[in-house]
Task: inverse folding
C-alpha cells in the first residue's frame, strides 16, 4: 500500500469524486443558475 | 461510537437509492435550521412586545441548540443518519458560495495576513501538542493525530492523516472525539470572551478561524458573533485548511522514516490528493465576482444560498455532538486536547491582538 495510492488507482471502476469536488461542482451549477436567473424563474 | 464521530458514508450500488437515503436526514437538518430561524424571530418579537430585556439569540445558536438537545436526549433513528452526515457537504458548498461575497483584493489582503498568522499558529501548535502528548505519555501516533487536528483543521485533518501515518481506528476516534468536544465548547466560550474584550468583527473572525479547529465549528463560532465576523472566520479557516497537505506530508515522511508508515513516492500527487479542493472553488467564486460575472443582486442571491447551506451545517453540528459518547473515549486525550486548545486559543488571541495593533484590522 502506498500513501499516495490515489495516483495509481485503476480507472476501471470510474473515478469517485471527493466531497470537496462535488461541493465545487454543485456551487458552480448554482452560480450558473443565479447568473442566468434560472432560480428567479422558479420562484427563489 | 465511531459511527457517530467518523462520518458514515452512503454506499450503495444504485445512485438513486443513495440519493433517496439522504432525503430524511437532509429534511431533518433543514427543519431544524428553519426552526432556528423561526425561533430567532418569534422569541425576539415576543421579548420586544413584552418589554423584556432578552439577549438577541441568533438562528445559528438556536439551530445548534435544537440539534444538541435532540442528539443528547433522543435516539436518532438510523433512517436519518446518512442525511445528517451530509452536513459537511453543505459546509463546503456554503464556503464556496461565500467566495462570492469577498472581493479578491480583500481575500489577498486578509488571506495574506491570515497566512502569516496560520504559519506561526501551526508551528507553535504542533510543538505544543507534541510536548503535551509526551508529558501525558500518550501513544506517539495519537499525539501526532491530536497535533495535526488542533493545528490545521480538526476532523478532516485527522481523517487525512490517519491513512498517511497508518494510525489505528481507536487513536483516530480518541483524537476526533477530543477535537469535536472542544469545538463544541468553543462555540460558547469564544463569542463570550470576544464580547468581554470588545473585539471588532475582523479581529474576532480571524481569532475564530485560527483558534477553533473544526471548520464547521469555526464557521458557527464566527457567525455567532456577527455576519461579518463569520465571513472573516471562514476566510482564516480556509487559509488554515489549505495547509493540510503540507502538515500531513511532513508527518507521513516522519513516520515513514521510522518504518511505521508507507513511503510517499510522489510528493506532488500526495499534496494534490490532500489539498481541500473547495478552497479553489472559494477563490474561483471570488475571482468571478471580481470580473463582474454577477450583478449586485446576483451576488446577494449567492450570499443567501451560502447562508442556507450553512444553516443545514449548523443543525448538523448540533445533531452529531453527543457528549455521552464523547466522554466514553477516555480522559487523557481529552485533557491533552483541552490543555493544548486553551493554550492555542490564548496564543492565537495574542497573535490577532498583535496583528490588530500592527496592521489596524
Result:
Amino acid at each position: 500500500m502506498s500513501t499516495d495510492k490515489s495516483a495509481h488507482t485503476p480507472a476501471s471502476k470510474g473515478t469517485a469524486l471527493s466531497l470537496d469536488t462535488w461541493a465545487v461542482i454543485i456551487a458552480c451549477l448554482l452560480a450558473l443558475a443565479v447568473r442566468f436567473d434560472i432560480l428567479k424563474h422558479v420562484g427563489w | 461510537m465511531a459511527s457517530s464521530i467518523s462520518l458514515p458514508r452512503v454506499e450503495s450500488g444504485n445512485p438513486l437509492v443513495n440519493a433517496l437515503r439522504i432525503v430524511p436526514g437532509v429534511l431533518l437538518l433543514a427543519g431544524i435550521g428553519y426552526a432556528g430561524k423561526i425561533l430567532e424571530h418569534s422569541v425576539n418579537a415576543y421579548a420586544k412586545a413584552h418589554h423584556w430585556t432578552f439577549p438577541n439569540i441568533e438562528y445559528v445558536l438556536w439551530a445548534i441548540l435544537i440539534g444538541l438537545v435532540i442528539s443528547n436526549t433522543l435516539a436518532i433513528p438510523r433512517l436519518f443518519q446518512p442525511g445528517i452526515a451530509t452536513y459537511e457537504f453543505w459546509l463546503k458548498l456554503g464556503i464556496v458560495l461565500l467566495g462570492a461575497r469577498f472581493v479578491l483584493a480583500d481575500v489577498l489582503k486578509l488571506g495574506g495576513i491570515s497566512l502569516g498568522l496560520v504559519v506561526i499558529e501551526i508551528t507553535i501548535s504542533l510543538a505544543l501538542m507534541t510536548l503535551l502528548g509526551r508529558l501525558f505519555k500518550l501513544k506517539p501516533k495519537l499525539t501526532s493525530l491530536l497535533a495535526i487536528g488542533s493545528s490545521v483543521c480538526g476532523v478532516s485533518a485527522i481523517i487525512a492523516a490517519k491513512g498517511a501515518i497508518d494510525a489505528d481506528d481507536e487513536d483516530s476516534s480518541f483524537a476526533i472525539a477530543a477535537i469535536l468536544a472542544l469545538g463544541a465548547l468553543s462555540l460558547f466560550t469564544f463569542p463570550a470572551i470576544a464580547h468581554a474584550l470588545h473585539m471588532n468583527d475582523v479581529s474576532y473572525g480571524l481569532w475564530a478561524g485560527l483558534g477553533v479547529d473544526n471548520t464547521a465549528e469555526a464557521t458557527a463560532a464566527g457567525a455567532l458573533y456577527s455576519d461579518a465576523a463569520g465571513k472573516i472566520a471562514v476566510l482564516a479557516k480556509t487559509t488554515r485548511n489549505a495547509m493540510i497537505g503540507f502538515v500531513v506530508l511532513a508527518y507521513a515522511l516522519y513516520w515513514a522514516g521510522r518504518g511505521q508508515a508507507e513511503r510517499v513516492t510522489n510528493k506532488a500527487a500526495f499534496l494534490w490528493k490532500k489539498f481541500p479542493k473547495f478552497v479553489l472553488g472559494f477563490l474561483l467564486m471570488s475571482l468571478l465576482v471580481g470580473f463582474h460575472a454577477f450583478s449586485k443582486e446576483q451576488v446577494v442571491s449567492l450570499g443567501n444560498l451560502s447562508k442556507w447551506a450553512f444553516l443545514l451545517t449548523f443543525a448538523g453540528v448540533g445533531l452529531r455532538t453527543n457528549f455521552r459518547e464523547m466522554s466514553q473515549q477516555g480522559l487523557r486525550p481529552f485533557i491533552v486536547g483541552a490543555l493544548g486548545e486553551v493554550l492555542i486559543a490564548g496564543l492565537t488571541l495574542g497573535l490577532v491582538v498583535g496583528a490588530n495593533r500592527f496592521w489596524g484590522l
Notes: Chain B is about 80% helix and 0% strand. Chain B touches chain A through 36 residues (CB under 8 Å). Residues 1-8 of chain B have pLDDT under 50 and may be disordered. The CA atoms of residues 187 and 275 of chain B lie 26 Å apart.
